[in-house]
Amino acid sequence: MTRVESEPAIELDDVxxxxxxxxxxxxxxxxxxxxxxxxxxxxxxxxxxxxxxLVNRLSLPDSGVVRFRGSDVADLDPLxxxxxxxMVFQRPTAFPGTVRANLAEAAPxxxxxxxxxxxxxxxxxxxxxxxTAQLSGGExxxxxxxxxxxxxxxxxxxxxxxxxxxxxxxxxxxxxARALANGGTTIVWVTHDRAQLERVADAIYEIxxxx
Amino acid sequence: xxEWAGLxxxxxxxxxxxGVSALLRLRLERDLIVASVRMAVQxxxxxxxxxxxxxADRSIWWSWLWVAAMVGYxxxxxxxxxxxxxxxxxxxxGAFGVAAVVTMGVLFGLDVxxxxxxxxxxxxxxxxxxxxxxxxxxxRRVLEEIGDKRDQVEARLALGQDxxxxxxxxxxxxxxxxxxxxxxxxxATGLVFLPGAMTGLILAGVDPADAVKVQAVVMFLxxxxxxxxxxxxxxxxxxxxxxxxxRLRLTLTADP
Lengths: 211, 256
Prior knowledge:
The complex is a heterodimer of chains A (211) and B (256).
Chain A: E1 8-19, E2 22-33, E3 37-41, H1 48-55, E4 63-68, E5 71-72, H2 78-84, E6 85-88, H3 99-104, H4 113-120, H5 137-149, E7 155-159, H6 167-182, E8 186-190, H7 194-200, E9 203-206
Parallel strand pairs in A: 3-8, 3-9, 6-7, 7-8
Antiparallel strand pairs in A: 1-2, 1-4, 4-5
Helix pairs in contact in A: 4-5, 5-6
Chain B: H1 4-23, H2 29-53, H3 60-81, H4 88-109, H5 117-148, H6 150-158, H7 163-188, H8 196-203, H9 208-240
């Protein structure tokens, strides 16, 4: 993958989102550089998760434009877009069954895809036939990361993925994310944790700070 | 044939129920009497209309019209029982309609029963009545499964799965739980309880062997109909929870 520093991978332009009569995102504009980790910080309820969901079209804005690699996401096939822009949620969303079954939900195992995804997510490949019910919280969240990586996404949306993990597990996750960014993956990482933000971020985007 | 006097004597049993209620101060006496009178009046009315509809001299189309009315009424009842399931009235109407075509097609198309008002109306009634509960359950369970597992459903969508694929495990779970009671009933038939159709035939003097054959066909009919209607309703209800561009709707329930 070619790393183009100057090119924004993700752009939000004058985006407005209203939910139940409340303005969640109010004319928000932001750009996220390709091949870097941009941490998104802001108080609870400032619309961080909503912003991420706009990028892979799990949600739609009321107005404004969201672009991925220069294309309006509204014009892209949502299923293809979501395979290019992976997402890891706040709580682990492992499906019942083995790790292999989880990875198979993303794509079939071709040319060692699963082994590569497990390695990138800092998971022992011996875990592949383990039932997810037997894994720790940190392992589960990295299974979710590995599952997302099976589709070989160009960008990753991380929605406070380590908030339910202990510090050691969070650090393992951070190292895995750093290695992915070094390999050219664009990462938008929502976090409440200031120390984590300092550790992982190449750039910081503050959301919801109204002065 | 039961005599009118016999019917009147059987009311003693309602008296027993009322007596028990009074003795134990359940305050159900009025409800018991109203329910019994209402049932008797409804049956008398239906019996009168049925006698007209299934009269041998009358066109079979009256029987089919009756079946269509039953399907329409059943879908209305299903929608009122589970108003939270979006679009259940039309889903149930379509599902009962398809199930009627499939089951009646097998029973009459393959000459299991002769096409006659006496067979068409009761068999369709059995089909619709017995699959109604499973149909309502299927709609509700799909809503609950996808609502409860919203995180997992969205995780599947985020992997690039289309909405039908993302919903499949939860539709499957809903169908299993909607069909299980009917399967358990089928298993227990003959051992734990004697079903109404067979009991009625035997009481009416039909040879038990013939009654058993009729009952077996009815059970197969009910199983086939329940499987058809629940599948159609579950798939239809699930599809209404997603947008055309494969997003899970923010609000899953319909306005009752």
